[in-house]
Amino acid sequence: MYKFRVLLIDDEEELVSALVERLSYRDIDSEFALTGPEGIDKMRQSVFDVVVLDLKLPGMDGTEVLSRIKKEHPDIPVLMITGHGSVANGQEEIPAQAFDFLSKPINLEDLIKKMQEAIDSG
Amino acid sequence: MNQNTGSEEEKLLMENSLTFFGAITASVSHELNNVISIINQTAGLLDDLLIGSREGRPIKTERLEKMAGSVKNQTDRGIDIIRRLNKFAHSTDEPVREYDPGDMIENLVSLTRRLADMKKVTLEMVPADGPVPVVGNPFQAQQAVFMAIRLALSTSLENDTIRIEMLEQEDVLKLLISGIRSDQGAEFDLSYLKLLTESFGGTITHRSEGEPTTLEITVPRGK
């Protein structure tokens, strides 16, 4: 029995595939998408409790993906992933529609805690 | 670089040099962050597998081989990024020196590739037929090429190609940056690029016979 389901959207395949496996060992079910359109498509086909979305994606960027997800699934919380320190330094702005953000490299326990907070806030 | 900014033009050149340096290092730091993130999660996964192994779930050799391969690939990727960044950083060492523009631009294009990847645009470099040694300021020449690429990227659409071509001439090196879509609302404000190229004795022009537009930068060979 899984605790919850998460969709990871990031173009670094080795990163998200490692995360999917590590989350499974913690009873969290997850899938990944390597592009924004692929992520939007997966959300139409399956139900997720939370989305983890990289701000910098090739093609359709994370801000645009967030906007489209929120339009179709306004109740699903979205966590944004950014480059290290870039938000804290004011170089990137986290869109208001995002629940919160985490900086790369991600600490897995911090990610799980933040995802749980996001789900509980709903 | 001259720290005594005596005129507004010198001040502008200095400010834009720093902006250029910042743009390259910011892009590279994002890419290095991805490299470290993958190694970090692979190490975490190995820990998870070791915990499972102690609890009686054996680790398959193929899994370990795959993970070792991933760490090696990412380490190689990181080493390549750092080597290129180091080469770029050292291009500021001397204001004037002999350099190989083919090597320099190939390095710059590689460092800039992430910006193009984000727009799903291909950067294609066409080197000169042979070495074209130049005596001049390599940092300023790179800045001019970078600004031209950035202008092209600002107009590009998915699956476009931006081509950077080097042509050897007697006294100058010609750099042609093609793939600029003037139908995408690009404002051809080349005033700063003109100032920059003039600062190292070069020129910049653009041709728009049909689509796409090509920028032509000349760099004096200074021999």
Q: How would you characterize the overall build of this protein?
A:
The complex is a heterodimer of chains A (122) and B (223). With 122 residues, chain A is α/β, with parallel strands linked by helices. In chain A, strand 3 (50-54), helix 3 (62-72) and strand 4 form a beta-alpha-beta unit. In chain A, helix 2 packs parallel to helix 3. Chain A is built from four helices and five strands; from the N terminus they run E-H-E-H-E-H-E-E-H. The two termini of chain A are 21 Å apart. A five-stranded parallel sheet of chain A has the order 2-1-3-4-5, sandwiched between helices. Chain A is 38% helix and 20% strand. Chain B is an alpha+beta fold and 223 residues long. Chain B has helices at residues 8-54, 61-90, 101-118, 138-155, 191-199; strands spanning 97-99, 122-126, 134-136, 161-168, 172-180, 203-207, 213-220. Chain B is elongated, with a radius of gyration of 22 Å. The two termini of chain B are 21 Å apart. The chains are: A alpha/beta (122), B alpha+beta (223). Chain A binds chain B through residues 12, 14-15, 18-19, 21-22, 25, 56-59, 61, 83-84, 86, 91, 104-106, 108, and chain B through 26, 29-30, 33-34, 36-38, 40-42, 44-45, 48, 52, 70, 73-74, 117-120, 158.
What would the CATH topology of the largest domain in chain B be? Heat Shock Protein 90
The N- to C-terminal Cα distance of chain A equals 21 Å
CATH superfamily of the largest domain in chain B: Histidine kinase-like ATPase, C-terminal domain
How many separate domains of chain B? 2
The name of the CATH architecture of chain A is: 3-Layer(aba) Sandwich
Q: What is the CATH topology of chain A?
A: Rossmann fold
Total beta strand runs of chain A? 5
The quaternary organization reads as heterodimer
Mean pLDDT of chain A: 92
Uncertain runs of chain B with pLDDT below 50, 5 residues or more? none
Helix content of chain B: 40-55%
Helix vs. strand class of chain A: alpha/beta
**Sheet having the most strands of chain B:** 5 strands, mixed
